[in-house]
């Protein structure tokens, strides 16, 4: 028995869109590619053609999958975009209400295509006014990432909300924005209320530079969300001009944890152009991270378990939960003798309990 899983970063409004998007592309004589820019552009272009019922069905299926795999709370990235306005905020509000007894959803106003599109800043303000819990950001897609960050932190301050950023999704250390985020976090007095996701540049940095980045994050109280399935799938494309073939970077979460950074392992995407193989199991995501980072020490495997239980709960600001006297009874029961065996074998979920009530 473990504390139930908490997912600090998941995209419900993109879940299970792989087949409908592939069908739309096939009709155009095109096909999917494992490229971040193409995935963003393809989903943005085709989303209006999919219909709200398709997106809603995928989001509900994702919730069912998460709960079945032991997740009882999640931070959901709600895409805010001129193509759909605030329609996906309404979808998530309905989703959260219908599933309130099974999973707690914390909603992030997320500008997937940046803030430089016409009307985006007003839409972001509208999303927060409509009840979004967290201000999201994606500064690497804008020409002026600093201005993007300034707006996000100002909006968060106006609403007293946390910040959650997609950051540094590349293998170029020179593109890193970690220092800018740390500066703004300290200036705004938001230590402990900022999370950054992906951050694959950390895997490409020289060790001393990565150590400085970890120290800056720890000092500013910036949490790190790592998405093994998505990041392995989308990163590491060859640079044709130079002939240099990149590695497959995933942010080194064990090193980050040892440096004092709060780390979480997340699903991010489920069965879509960003991660065709996503299946909603945070335990399997932790298992994959264990392989990637050679987690042979018991302490390292304990870190992986913390990264899908207590750490993401802390990032979401949730009360203590788990099989501890006085804690909230959010629990997952696994077919294993102990947590080490559960992780090593990616054991089957036998039962899920939320607030003392068995829900699976």
UniProtKB/TrEMBL annotation:
<feature type="domain" description="Amidohydrolase 3">
    <location>
        <begin position="44"/>
        <end position="356"/>
    </location>
</feature>
<dbReference type="InterPro" id="IPR052349">
    <property type="entry name" value="Metallo-hydrolase_Enzymes"/>
</dbReference>
<dbReference type="InterPro" id="IPR018228">
    <property type="entry name" value="DNase_TatD-rel_CS"/>
</dbReference>
<dbReference type="InterPro" id="IPR013108">
    <property type="entry name" value="Amidohydro_3"/>
</dbReference>
<protein>
    <submittedName>
        <fullName>N-acyl-D-amino-acid deacylase</fullName>
    </submittedName>
</protein>
<dbReference type="InterPro" id="IPR032466">
    <property type="entry name" value="Metal_Hydrolase"/>
</dbReference>
<dbReference type="Pfam" id="PF07969">
    <property type="entry name" value="Amidohydro_3"/>
</dbReference>
<dbReference type="GO" id="GO:0016814">
    <property type="term" value="F:hydrolase activity, acting on carbon-nitrogen (but not peptide) bonds, in cyclic amidines"/>
</dbReference>
<dbReference type="InterPro" id="IPR011059">
    <property type="entry name" value="Metal-dep_hydrolase_composite"/>
</dbReference>
